[in-house]
Amino acid sequence: MTTFFITRHPGAIEWAARQGIVTDRQVMHLDTADVSAGDTVIGSLPVHLAAEICERGARYFNLSLDLPAHARGKELSADELDAYNARLEEFSVHPGSCDNLREEPNHDPATTPTTGTKPEHVAQRTPRHGQPAGSVSRTDSESDDQFDGDGTRTGGTLPTATPSGSTRPLDATRELDTAQGTLTYTEVSERLAVNIAHTLKTLFDSAPEQIQITPDWIRTIHQRLAGELFPDWAGRFRSTEVQVGTHLPPLPHDVSVNITNYCLDLAVRLQHASDADTVWTERLSQ
After folding, report:
1. S-S: 183 plus which of 101, 102, 187, 268, CB 3.0-4.6 Å?
2. Do the strands 181-184 and 123-125 form a parallel or antiparallel pair, or are they unpaired?
3. What distances in angstroms separate CA 219 from CA 107, 235, 256, one per listed residue?
């Protein structure tokens, strides 16, 4: 039987050592095919991965935090984890049917009474001693981005392609207010293309060891590309929700976390890669 600890964060590793938690394998990304019945997995994984672990007969312990908003997306030390009440909580997660979440055809909420049927609980925390079992509340099931393992943020179905309240087709001509006046998308694209060409030339002329991909470096590049047109937000992480066609990018509070995780993952891969060019090609293509 194997105990896995899924994290990429030094603070979490140190915290576990202080607690006397003994693990057999500490990895940044979990391949559920490696998990067998009787194994133990520790981490803060997406729900669908936790369900796969439980289906394989293994036990899943979530590394939970009472994390305030201002601390999200930051590297936390072991002392900070203690301050935010870091703890391991065992969960038994099983997928359920969502059929009862869908409305019946021609259902009219204004005239059809509700049946009172509640959605099936899809996850249940294993009760600690002296506590009754109960369904997972929003607080209990919320993922702590600091310790997310492999997986993507999941959600419901995408909204309609046309934004709510608008009849404008997706390919309609739109205008943007910029520091250079009101410009169409085409005009903005042409100006950005010039900046992109200049930035690429600068990167190609730089020595590889001079390029350190960090969140600050990415923001600097973004400011070079869009700063002339959009000085108010170029070089900053997005703080509003957006939609690109039918694509829903990550929520604002996830952006800095995802960028930080990307940079950390790339740095580790390059550090241990025998063929750095392959890693660059793989990561930059994502």
Report:
1. 187
2. unpaired
3. 48, 4, 10
Q: What is the value of pTM for the model shown?
A: 0.40
Maximum separation of any 2 CA atoms in the chain, in Å = 69
Which are the contacts of 240, defined by CB distance < 8 A and separation ≥ 6? 252
Tokens of 150: 């492999």
Query: Are the CB atoms for 17 and 39 separated by under 8 Å?
Result: no
- Let me know: does 122 contact 92? Beta carbons within 8 Å: no
Q: Are 132 and 12 in contact (CB under 8 A)?
A: no
DSSP tally for the chain: helices H, then strands E: 8, 9
Three-state DSSP state, 215? helix
Bridge partners, 244 (sequence order): 247
Helix (H) or strand (E) holding 61: strand 59-64
Query: Which residues partner with 42 through β-bridges?
Result: 5, 61
181: left (phi over 0), alpha (psi -120 to 50) or beta: left
Name the nearest CA neighbour of 59 among 11, 2, 10: 2
DSSP 79-98: HHHHHTT-EEEEEEE-----
φ, ψ of residue 217 in degrees (nearest 5): -65, -40
For the stretch 89-146, pLDDT in tens is 999 988 877 766 666 555 454 444 444 443 343 344 444 333 333 333 333 333 444 4
